[in-house]
Amino acid sequence: MATESNLNENDTIHPLSRIANSKIASVLDQLPTLDDVLHRQSQPPVCLYNYYIVLRDRLELEILLDFWLDVAQADILYKRYIKYANKRASTKFSSPKLPKPSISSSILDYHQRQSNNSNANDVLTHMLLLHPRASLATTMYSTTTNGSHPKRPPPSQSEMIEAVERIYLRYIVPSAEKEIIQLPASIKEGIGQHFYDSEKKDPSLYTGHPENPIIYAQAKEYVHQLLESTFPLFLRYKVFMNLTLPQQIGRLASGLVLLLVGFSLEFSLIFLNIHPWQKRLWGILPIILGVFCVITSITGIDPVWVLGFNLSETVPFQFNHIAHQRVRTILRRRSIMVSAIILFTTLIFMIFFCAVAGKRL
């Protein structure tokens, strides 16, 4: 009988759970996915720029996004490089005569001098310290001074080799400028072995493709999984909130100070038995502002910015318009709810301080 009752209870619970799950799924389906954000196919505030800001300011994981974008940019450049090489080969009715692939001569020379007392990771770490390089995404094919993207020729093989090396020196080697400590050692060793083997071999006999960023495919996939784990937090911060963390902290501190001032003023008016009682309303003003600051800090949403100006904060006191329709709807509903909470709390304080009889001590 107990088993039958449990089955009956499950039969009544499961349909409700399915309905709740379907509602949650329908909301998520209307929001951008991680791939939409990474490929710049989403609208503010759920966009790549805000995702980077959240990873940097709240999660301190912006290195993961830097790596993914640099590898993705290298993949795009490599496709252009291959397309141009194939086009040139078809034009000449022969295979393209490309130079022998080789890694950076500076790395080769240094490795030959230190081969007896240093491994490949130490060599490349040393080269990184001697010749630090900027991110591929921010240096290659950067914008001009007027913001337009100039039309550039396809990258050469030497440029592709340098791009692949730059990623390795920037993110993979120990003590690198932006070393990804979350990557498993097996993935790092696999990538490092590629460069180490190419150094040890005679460049004239080396038949690999050092210009191909495919060596980062496994690392890129692993980093993508890490980014997927952070994406729900990003949606929480940008879909249900429109304040940054410094703004929340500042409002909390300001709200507590304003509440202290308001309460002190109100209790002073009560125990001094100041007449008429309407003068107590002056003490309500800092209390209203204090309640507003504290509640908006806790909820992370400013109803004035959302309902009045349709704004979401990116960094402190810098904003972008809420362009995504579904996000705008969610923020407006939450703003109305937060406004109701602020008004209700303020009304309680107003009734309490105005209704209490004064008594001079």
UniProtKB/TrEMBL annotation:
Q: Which domain of life is it from?
A: Eukaryota
Q: Which residues form the signal peptide?
A: none
Segments crossing the lipid bilayer: 252-274, 281-301, 336-358
Q: Name one GO biological process term.
A: intracellular protein localization
What GO terms fall under cellular component here? Answer: plasma membrane
Q: Which UniProt keywords apply?
A: Membrane, Transmembrane, Transmembrane helix
Protein name per UniProt: Uncharacterized protein
The scientific name of the source species is: Mucor circinelloides f. circinelloides (strain 1006PhL) (Mucormycosis agent)
